[in-house]
Design brief:
Layout (H helix, E strand, L loop, with lengths): L1 E8 L2 E13 L3 E6 L25 E6 L4 E5 L2 E6 L9 E6 L1 E5 L10 E7 L4 H4 L4 E7 L4 E7 L6 E4 L2 E10 L12 E14 L1 H18 L10 E4 L2 E8 L18 H4 L3 H15 L1 H8 L7 H20 L7 H12 L6 H15 L3 H12 L5 H20 L12 H23 L3 H10 L4 H9 L6
Antiparallel strand pairs: 1-2, 1-4, 2-3, 3-7, 4-5, 5-8, 6-7, 8-16, 9-14, 9-15, 10-11, 12-13, 13-14, 15-16
Helix pairs in contact: 2-4, 5-6, 6-9, 6-10, 6-11, 7-8, 9-11, 11-12, 11-13
């Protein structure tokens, strides 16, 4: 995508500079200006090199001849070519990770956004809500198809953020005369805020929702970028630069859950994930980050292991097994040992405290017990020993390795796949899905089939 036009600081349109806006998957958002936007506090051209260029205003512009309105959100200075003899000949480039675009003028400064909507393209089979019926009406010469749509009851959930609901839109792409008619039914997940929000809040919320869908619905496909609504503009498209996952063709998308199974509590799960995200952080986002296109096998495995460890830390507390009374007694006894100085004494206390904490294997077992009970304990312990050996080899050791050693790419890849059902189901359990349903997802979800099969091969699951 490329647009040319005039651009200026969103809150100051006194200086408008010609430039080219572009967005590509490889380079992201770039704005090349044929001139210089004035910086606050700039009195002389030399001042540009001393002024702080972070926390810049958003940059707004209008493209020609498309007459689209574009806004770079949280831009940062990328480079500049400064001509001291004639500043009009200088050029500069700004970069951003997000931008908004609309056919109409808009203002996104402050808390002005009343609604946000995510298109659910490629999630039709997950929703399974198609409402059309086709029947043929015969006359003397031909049969004429007639399509009717039953009004779908509005799927709506009241959550603390506002009203969350599904809305539906029909379109007919082939408007030219044709022997066939294609009718598309598009669904949108829409949130009408109880209190208006700012643009940065909406970007952060969207990043969480992308990850929510990758975990709860399918790791094969991402939801599309959202549209936002303000009082003076009902349709502003918000483009957020996301790291890309390796998406699957539409017909081969496998789902973790199905909408009909979680429909009644979908709003609660949605709200719960948003609320818990700040608490669990890496425990939630390291699973989606393990799906990034082109990631190394070792990095994927490390993300999954570290994510599971983070889940346990926040689920059970940092020191769930420490006996505070016993530790207090040890500290009292150490204070009596006069041959130790304070630093040596603290090192011993830290070491004892560390060894009282649950080890990695205990953390994995705790999480596994929460989602599934019918397993072979000996085989599960053996499987987790393999995981921990591989993790320790990657994170702590180096040197040459043979194919029999834990550090083997294929071995690590299989361990990552086998850990995936445990990771996904642990997040679902923490967010609020009941244990019985978690067990059903663990055993029957098409998206978790590969990992489940590997756990069976390890002998962990009883067939």
């Amino acid at each position: 995508m490329e647009r040319t036009g005039k651009f200026w600081w969103l809150n100051d349109d006194s200086t408008k500079i010609s430039g080219t806006f572009s967005f590509t998957k490889r380079k992201g958002v770039l704005l090349s200006l044929y001139g210089l936007l004035p910086l606050e506090g700039e009195q002389h051209p030399f001042d540009r090199f001393k002024l702080k260029k972070s926390n810049l205003q958003n940059i707004y512009g209008e493209s020609h001849p498309q007459y689209e309105h574009i806004c770079l959100i949280n831009p940062f200075h990328w480079n500049q070519n400064f001509d001291f003899s004639c500043t009009e000949n200088s050029t500069e480039t700004y970069k951003a990770f997000s931008y908004a675009i609309s056919k109409q003028p808009f203002d996104i400064e402050g808390n002005v956004i009343s609604s946000i909507s995510w298109p659910l393209k490629n999630f039709e089979k997950w929703l399974y809500l198609f409402s059309g019926q086709v029947k043929y009406i015969r006359n003397e010469k031909e049969s004429i198809p007639e399509v009717t749509f039953d009004p779908m009851p509005l799927k709506k959930w009241d959550i603390s953020l506002g009203n969350l609901y599904l809305k539906r839109h029909w379109s007919c792409p082939n408007s030219i005369p044709s022997s066939s008619i294609l009718i598309e039914e598009q669904y949108y997940l829409t949130l009408d805020f109880s209190e208006k929000k700012g643009i940065n809040y909406c970007i952060d919320l969207s990043r969480r929702i992308f990850r929510f869908f990758l975990t709860f619905v399918s790791s094969d496909v991402c939801i599309s970028n959202p549209e936002i609504k303000t009082d003076n503009n009902p349709c502003i498209k918000l483009n957020i630069d996301q790291q890309k996952i390796k998406e699957t063709k539409k017909d081969f998308v496998k789902f973790v859950t199905f909408f009909k199974d979680i429909e009644s509590e979908f709003g609660e799960l949605f709200q719960s994930y948003i609320n818990l995200y700040d608490t669990y952080l890496s425990g939630f986002y390291l699973y989606p980050s393990s799906l990034i296109r082109g990631i190394f096998v070792e990095q994927q495995f490390s993300n999954i292991v570290c994510g599971l460890e983070a889940l346990h830390t926040h689920r059970y507390g940092k020191n769930p097994d420490i006996d505070e009374e016993k530790l207090s007694h040890i500290k009292d006894e150490l204070r009596k040992v006069t041959s130790l100085n304070n630093r040596e004494r603290q090192k011993i206390i830290d070491s004892i405290e560390y060894n009282m904490k649950p080890n990695l294997k205990k953390r994995f077992l705790d999480l596994f017990h929460e989602i599934y009970g019918d397993y072979n304990e000996e085989k599960l312990n053996g499987f987790l020993d393999d995981v921990i050996k591989s993790r320790n080899t990657i994170m702590h050791y180096g040197g040459p390795r043979s194919t029999d050693d834990p550090y083997n790419v294929q071995r690590i890849q299989l361990l990552s796949l086998a850990l995936t059902p445990i990771y996904v189901c642990s997040v679902l359990r923490i967010v609020g899905i009941e244990k019985e349903f978690i067990k059903n997802i663990f055993l029957k979800s098409p998206a978790l089939y590969e990992g489940r099969s590997l756990l069976e091969q390890y002998g962990v699951l009883k067939k």
